[in-house]
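REQUEST
  id: r-88c1
  op: predict_structure
  target: Carbon storage regulator
  payload:
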Amino acid sequence: MALTLGRKPGEKVYLVDNQGREIEIEVVRREDKLSNYTQLRISAPQEFQIIRGEIFNGSDSN
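RESPONSE
  id: r-88c1
  status: 200
  body:
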């Protein structure tokens, strides 16, 4: 399953599993249009691992 969303700073998305555990993803800052990234804050129960994509996929690229 995939979902593509546009979010503004301060807006959140929640992922909830079948046990009711929540992962909260919040856009905390967007740089000006010349910048190439968005900052996110991810809050999850300790049972969940939060792994950046470049590490998860075993890539050394930025």
